[in-house]
Amino acid sequence: MMNKSCPRVSFNFEHTFLPPVYILVFIVGLVANGWGLKSLLHNSKKLKIINVFVLNLGLADILYLLTLPFFVVYYLMSSKWIFGDVFCKITRFCFNLNLYGSIGFLTCISVYRYLAIVHPMRVMGRITVLHSVGISVLVWLIVSMQSLPDMFFSKTFENKLGCYDTTSETYVEDYLKYSLGWTLTGFCIPFLIALGCYGHVIVVLCRTNTTDNVLKRRSLRLLFILILLFSVCYIPYHVLKNLNLWSRVLLNQKLCCEWSNGVYIAHQISRGLVCLNSALNPLVYLHGDEHIPAQLRQLILQARETFRRLSNSNSVPVAQTTVEV
C-alpha cells in the first residue's frame, strides 16, 4: 500500500489543458501543412534536394494531425478510450513517428545546408534528388525501428478504458530505461548534429564577406526556427517525460517525492508544447522553396483586397425611400 504521506497527483489537469491545445494545433497544422505541401507538389518538376526533406517533414505532421481528434474525444471523456487497444498503440506510434521523424528531417536539412554552404565544391553534382529520397527512406526506417518497441508495452489501464502515452505502472521501470536510450539516440544526437552544423554555417557566413546577404539572412532565420523548435517543443518534452517516469518508478518503490505532482503537470504542458511542432514545422517551408514566400505574400494581398471590398460594400449607405400615404 502506498505511503499516505505521498502527495496526490492531479490527473485532472490534462483533461482541461490538452483538448484546446490539440484542437488549435489540428486546425492550424492541417491548414499550414496542407498549403505548404500543395505548394511543394505544385512545383514537383523543379523539386530540389532540400524540398524532399521538407516534403517528408510535412507528411510526418499530417500523419500525426489526423490522430488528434481521437485524443480530443479521449480527454474530453475524462480519459476514457473507446477506440480499442490496437488503435491506441497505432495513434501513439504515429505520434512517435511525427516527433522523431521531424527531428530526423530537420537534422537532414541542417546537414545539407552545412554541406551546401561550407563545402559547396565537394557536394556539387554529387548529391542528387535520388540520394535525398534514399536518405528519407532511411530516416523513416530508423525512426520506425526506434518507435516499434514502444508498441509492445502495455498502453491501457486494467479497466481497458485508458490509453497511456508511455506505459502502465507495472512496466514503468523498464520503460524508463527504454525512454532514456530513445532520448539519446532519437533526440540528443540529432540535436547536437543540427546545432553543430548551423553553428559552423553561421561562423563561415560571418567570416566570408563575399557571401550573398540573402543567403545569410535565410540561414540565420532557419537557425532561429531550429532553435525555437528544439527549445520550445523538444527539449522540455524529453526532460520532463523522463523525470515523470522516474517519479513513477520511485512511487512504485514507495518512495515519495514532493515534486512528483509538479513534474506531472509540467510534463502535461510539455506534451501540449511538443505537438506544436506540427504547427511550427511549416515555417521551414518558407526556406525550402523560394516560390512559397512569394505565394504567401500574394495570398495575404488577396485576403486584404477581399476584406477591403467587403468592408466597402457594407459601408455603402442604403438609399432612403419615402412612402406617400
Give the SSE map.
Elements: H1 13-42, H2 49-65, H3 68-76, H4 85-118, H5 120-123, H6 129-147, H7 172-207, H8 213-252, H9 260-274, H10 277-280, H11 285-288, H12 291-315
Helix pairs in contact: 1-2, 1-3, 1-9, 2-4, 2-6, 4-6, 4-7, 7-8, 8-9
Please name the defining characteristics of this protein.
globular; mainly alpha; Rhopdopsin 7-helix transmembrane proteins; 325 residues; disordered C terminus
Got a strand count? 0
Q: What is the averaged pLDDT score? A: 82
Q: How many domains in all? A: 1
Level-1 CATH class name: Mainly Alpha
**What letter string, H or E per element, gives the SSE order?**
HHHHHHHHHHHH
Specify the CATH architecture: Up-down Bundle
Binned strand content: under 5%
Major beta-sheet overview: none
Envelope shape: globular
Cα-atom radius of gyration: 24 Å
Written description of the protein model:
With 325 residues, the protein is mainly alpha-helical. The protein has a single domain (13-295), classed as Rhopdopsin 7-helix transmembrane proteins, CATH 1.20.1070. It has helices at residues 13-42, 49-65, 68-76, 85-118, 120-123, 129-147, 172-207, 213-252, 260-274, 277-280, 285-288, 291-315.
